[in-house]
Every structure is written in C-alpha cells, then in structure tokens.
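Anyone? Bumping this.
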Amino acid sequence: MSISLDEVRHVARLARLELDEAELVAFQSELNALLGHFQDIRGIDVYGQSPHSRSSALQNVWADDDTWPSLPRGSALQNAGVTKAGLFIVPTIIEE
Amino acid sequence: MLTQLSASELAAKLKSRETSAIEVAEAHLARIDQMDGEVGAYLEVCREAALESARLAQARLDEHTDGPLTGIPIAVKDNLSTLGIETTCASRILEGYVPPFDATVVSKLKEAGMVLLGKTNLDEFAMGTSCENSALKVTRNPWDPDRSPGGSSGGSAAAVAAELAPMALGSDTGGSIRMPAALCGIVGFKPTYGRVSRYGLVAFGSSLDQVGPLARTVEDAASLAAAVSGHDPSDSTSLRDSAIRTDGLKNGSLKGVKVGLPKQLMSDAVQPGVRDAFDMALEALVREGALVDEVDLPSIEYGVTTYYVIAPAEASSNLARFDGIRFGAQRTGEGHIGNVSATRGQLFGHEVKLRIMVGTYALSAGYYDDYYVRAQQVRSMMSDEFNRAFSDYDCLLSPTSPVVAFRLGELRDDQMALKMLDLCTIPANLGGFPSISLPCGFSQDLPVGMCLTGPVNSDERLLQIAYACEQGLPWGYRRPPMP
C-alpha cells in the first residue's frame, strides 16, 4: 500500500502544516517508507488482545473538589503574539 | 578538581566545609566557559541565577537546613519548563518562549537546594536519537567531537560526561535518557511510568514520556531520582506513594540475581565490538554470582514499529497546541487557519513535521483501526510477554545501543537505521517499566552501555542491582579524553 501525493496534501491540511511542493514530495517518499515498515504489525495475530489503554495500573483518578489559585492572567498572556484587554487576539473566523 | 567529583563526593565536601556551594558553582561555570564552546551541551547558561542559588544553598548548609543535594549543580533538558528561563525544546517555534511556571521536577530541584546551571540541547521536541534534530545547536560527544552524543537528551548526557555538570535531568520517550547516557559513557535512568511527575514536561508521547536522571554513578542517579519522584496532583498519571527510596541501594549483591537476556536483542544488528564489551561485562556479572539465562521475547521484533505508530500519533495530538497564538513565534498566512499553518509549516523542523504527518495519518478515518488500534494491541501483547518474563527474572539485560557513538551526519540519510537503534530501549517505554543504562566497557575507545529493565515499580530493586553491577565490573568510571 502506498500513499499518493494528494493524500499527503490532505494529511498536511489536517495537521495544519503549510508545506511547499518539494516538501510534499519528500514526505510522500518518507511516509511510504515508514508505512512499508508498518506492514510488519498488520500481519500479527492479535485476535482477542485488547488494545493497551493506560500506562499504569491507575484507574479513575479524581481530584479533590478544592479551589486553588490559577495562573494569573498577565502570566497566561505574557507569551502571546497579540493581546487586547486581557484577551488573546486572533483573526476573525466567522464572517457576518 | 571539583568538576571531576560525583554529586555524592561534592555533597560530602560541602557538608565537611572543605568547599562551598559558591565555589562548586563557580568551578562548573568556569568549566562551561572553557569547554562548552567545543561540546555545545547548553542552549542557555543561567550564570547569575546559578550563583544566587548557590549563595542560598550555602546559607542552608550553614544553618544545617540542607538536604542530600543542597548546593549540587544540575543541568536541565530544555523541554522542562523553567519559570522565567526560556524553554525552547530546541525548536524555532518556541524561540523566545518564557514559561510562567516551573515543571514539578524543577520545583523539586529548587526545594532540594540544587543549583540550576542551565538548559541543555536536545533533538527538537525530543524527537530523535542523535541530538542532530536540534534546530538551534550542534552537540558533540565528549569522547570524540566528530560523533553524536546520542539523543534526544544529548545535551544533558554530554554535559555530565564532559563534567559541565555532575548530574542532569532528561526525558525518555523511547530511550532518550538511556541511549545518550550509553553513547557518552555515563548512567541514565528512566523510572517506572508515573513515579516522576510529567507536569511541565513539554509533552511528546504522553503515555511513554518519563523524566529521569543522568549522572556519572548509579548512586548519583538514584539520589536525583529520589529528589524528583513522588506523587503530584498536577499529573493525573502520577502514582500515589511513588517517591523513589535509596536507603537499600548499597545493600544488594549480584549473588543469585536472576537476569534474562532477550535473545532478540543480541541480533546481528549489534556491532561485534559492542557485543564483545557486553559479553565481557556479562562474564564479570556471572563471576559476581548473577544467574544469567537467555529468554525468548518474540514481540520485541515489533517494538520499533509499534512505537513509531503510537509515539507520532500522540505527538500529532500534543503538538496541535503550537499554533503561535498563546505562545511561541508566529508567521503570517491567509486568515486564521493560514496563520496557524504557516507558523507550524515554517517553524517546525523536518523530523517533527514528519512525525506529525505519520501520527495524523495513523489516527485518520479509515486507518485508525489498522494502525493505531493494532499498535496498541501489539503493545499489550508485548507488555504481557515482558510481565511473564519478570515472573522468572529479576531483570532483563541487553546492550543499550547496538552501536557505539556514530559520526555526526553518518545516519542522517538513513532515518530508519537511526530509528532501529532504539530497539533495546523502546520496550521499557511501551510497558512503563523502569530501565537503566550504565557503562559496561569500550569498543573503538568509545563507551558501550548495558541496559537493565525491571517490572513496573521495581525501581529501588533495579537501582540496587545496577549499583551492584557497577561495583562488580572490574573497571571503574572512565573520563573522556578531555582536559
């Protein structure tokens, strides 16, 4: 199985990655090489094996229902590109 | 020279007033000035803050309110958030980002009175095995400046080996602490998943990531693990009662310790010189009383592939937060989505973009079951197989890396070969097992490491066995050929 250039373009769009044509072609070949290796695990008999779902024996971790100070607004905004009146500013995404 | 001493030796001298925390910090800063131009371990050196912490540490020592690591300098991998200190993950997308909070492990270092010398280089977002994927700097192996220090915690490993810090923190998602430790001739420990908080570690593969120590002795690695471990309510995967204890570290011996050698990890991929060094170390361990058997773990063959489905899948989700809006650098495109895509497309490096693409593909409609779910099934199969082996053996042992440090650029065009180097270290991440690499000999005058892996929550026992191994090997710690 191999991945087409259009599929690479589609995946890049899903991943919000702006790539030029040369990069798309490079990724097509690298993705195909990796997907070739992935065939190894497609052939394994995993019948009845449940998918791994957690990395420790923990289940249902609940936090106490307490309040504590959160990050001050100024600190939360200190690394933002554009802010105004204590908010992050982004371009309009909904047209009138 | 103070910089040649281990942390435990420094601690003894600090307590006996043979030296001061300020002298120790100044000695390390001077050595960084002298040597780091060649090594390139640090992305940022926090000179003034380090000296200020050293003064505070000395006050604690003078007031007898010190702990075991008070006044000991440390280097921290630059994917751990540090309040007020730039944290870049060696990526252009985070250049200029200054975290408004400390990672829990960094808070713990501060509470312990340790002196943060600076932030160390890594493969961008910890994605790599050679440290060559850093967008910001080249780090060189102290054993041979033409060679890679290994990755992704290459800066931390090189700093410790080159005596630019007695100990360092790294993170390990598929071997990123143990691999560079092996290639630089030092000790690197990945604790059981959940015993060290991940809060403030910039996430790569959340079900695999674990923070851990790099040091020149097992004793130092154990004391740093003890300092940073423990339950943290800020990390929902943090285990209760998870502080790592060191009281029994020196009480073990290798007599009667059952060691399994996975035969799949002694394949032809292991360089003959690495195999010879490993075999010699093994003979020494058997002489000390270890009971060694070969063990068959067939699912190991699928470890690397399984990892390269799961880790990118988690990365593609985790790295979605880098959109240039709330933090990090920004680029302009067409409209809001265009801005985000331009920022990500232009500022992530090639390997990071490749992994995001792989992960996005593996999680996309139509392929999710075939790739992601299946990889998670294989992961379960592999964990089960390892857990069965752990009912017969105290630990499993293999070389850490099938090769010694390779030349910079040597594997750049063979990414799959580079990824296959993680064959021996990946199973511990997939299963959440504790795993430690320690020096076990030399090949071509370059260090060879061996990797011990134990069952979940056997961290204390594993460190005890590793300590006994270190003592049982007939050669001591060897310095790299540096002034």
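Late reply, but here is one note on the structure posted above: Chain A touches chain B through 52 residues (CB under 8 Å).
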